[in-house]
Amino acid sequence: MNKYLAVALIRSTAWAWPRAVQHKRGPMGTRLNLLPLTSEGIAEMLKHQTQAIQSLLHRRGQMSTTAIVFLVLGIVFFVMVVVGAVLLALLLPAVQQARAAARRTQSRNNLKQIALALHNYESVYHGLPLGTYSNEKLKPEERLSWQAAILPFMDQSALHQSINSEEAWDDESNRNASETRIQVYLNPGYPVPVSVAETHYVGIAGLGKDAPMLPANSNRAGVFAFNRKTGFRDITDGLSNTMMTSEASGQFGSWIAGGNATIRSLTTKPYINGPDGIGGPYTGGCQIGLADGSVRFVSENIDPVVFERLATMADGQVIGEF
Fold this sequence. Notes:
There is one protein chain. By secondary structure, this protein is of the alpha+beta class. The protein folds into two domains: 2-91, no CATH class; 109-311, no CATH class. Strand 6 and strand 7 (295-299) form a beta hairpin. The longest helix is centred in the N-terminal third of the chain and has 61 residues, at 65-125. It is built from seven helices and seven strands, in the order ααααααβββββββα.
């Protein structure tokens, strides 16, 4: 009985090995046909196990009923383990894709909330906020940002009132504010920052390194500038044809900081996920917020000329489909 039980066990577990091994002999001369963990391998394994069980039933007179029952249960258990492993391998990529899609949707909602706050600001003050707070004694990168200016329109009035607008964003008087994380400014596709309250979204200044200093009527000017207040009437290319905000792909800084942390222009190709830090963590491109409040996903393979036209607000050029 022990001889037949050992032979059956060898036959029932051989399929679990990672590769097929041909013409090898196991204990007592039993041939081991090792099958891969694929649907074909599982089908072949089931066939072998069925044959093994039938063989055992023919030898019932030589084995106890208890031994046969335990052997069959062992075979069923191993089959369940293999099938479960295969199903897990098939489902895991789908789960990861679903999570990525959920993060991308949340980032889209963040851009919409930012756009809504900007629209409400424009309705109250008849213009969008300056890219940085007006403060002649400070450089643009030392000033407070437009993201600080729209806080009251994002249910953050108390935080806004705690900011000292006369000092630099990293002044001691603004320490508490600069260390406060605002969930809407965090792209869920990135790890949560540890040391500073980052923003993963930026305002678009236009085309060229000097774009944040250009007047509104320049054909290279974008929506945001360091010292300029832009009204919707200045966006002559049309609100639905002008990029106002975008996901960022790096060079992150605090949401309260002016300069490159919160305003960026197109300077070097590729424009998306390139050296300018405009882009995102999602495969294939990034999401941008248009001046009409809508959000679009733009391919990283977009025609650079089309992206330049999106970044400017008064160049008079037709954009077309993108």
